[in-house]
């Protein structure tokens, strides 16, 4: 990895509840453990990342990613919050206002899909990683994340027979984004709630290999510690440093660092 290069990674899949937010939150914590400077941009109106790592409730924040995207002036300095529940992880909050953002961008922005890319530019070189949590849709908010990103991670819910539903639409969408962001690459597909002993997981793993490919060697197991961490607003490192689930996110961070350095 070049020094001072900021790697922007979008975590995207329009399938709801497949593990996007969980991946963003715990990957961020592990990258900090590896000595990296990390910012999370919450682009989801559900604001789940913000509810987990934010010190304040998203409704109390006046400049969130919604205002960052829709104001002509770059409000980055006001949007950036360095103090979060996760030491070393900065946050641009998401909020319910993001629900109106897509219509506002369509109406007022000359480049509705490229506002985030432009607004994050002053941060290049300041963070090692910017992780973007996408909403469960393929509309303008997700396009903004993909247009700004160097890489995309696609989490796939391995324990569900519907885990791959719609994934070809996502791949087609990524191809379309290449027209405005030719550097975007698939960093990997990540199997979530994966259990090698279960047939459904093995089937989804084979099917993911055949349809998308580029599976991370790391897989993420099922663990109630994930919900516990969200409720307690802590990282898995705080909850149980030696647990299988924590070690899997640590392994994921290391796999990513090795991939980006090679
Ligand atoms: N490895 C795991 N083990 C157990 N539960 C998990 C795991 N990963 C995620 N979950 C739980 O599954 C639910 C969905 O996860 P998450 O919120 O990360 O998905 P998402 O893709 O961000 O959802 P959305 O599309 O709504 O934004 C959450 O309740 C989360 O706590
Ligand atoms: Mg989410």
Could you outline the blueprint of secondary structure elements for this entry?
Layout: E1 7-11, H1 20-33, E2 38-42, H2 48-53, H3 65-70, H4 76-79, E3 80-81, E4 89-92, H5 98-108, H6 115-120, E5 129-133, H7 140-148, E6 151-157, H8 167-177, E7 185-192, H9 199-211, H10 225-232, H11 236-240, H12 244-261
Parallel strand pairs: 1-5, 1-6, 2-4, 2-5, 6-7
Antiparallel strand pairs: 3-4
Magnesium ion (MG) binds at residues 20-21, 44, 48, 133.
Question: Could you give a short description of this structure?
Answer:
By secondary structure, the protein is an alpha/beta fold. It contains twelve helices and seven strands.
Polypeptide structure, described:
The radius of gyration is 17 Å and the shape is globular. The longest helix has 18 residues, at 244-261. With 262 residues, it is α/β, with parallel strands linked by helices. It has a single domain, classed as 3-Layer(aba) Sandwich (Rossmann fold). Helix 8 (167-177) links the parallel strand 6 and strand 7 (185-192). It starts with 6 loop residues before the first strand and ends with a helix. It has a 7-stranded mixed β-sheet, sandwiched between helices. Helix 1 crosses helix 12. The chain has helices spanning 20-33, 48-53, 65-70, 76-79, 98-108, 115-120, 140-148, 167-177, 199-211, 225-232, 236-240, 244-261, and strands spanning 7-11, 38-42, 80-81, 89-92, 129-133, 151-157, 185-192. The structure holds adenosine-5'-triphosphate and magnesium ion.
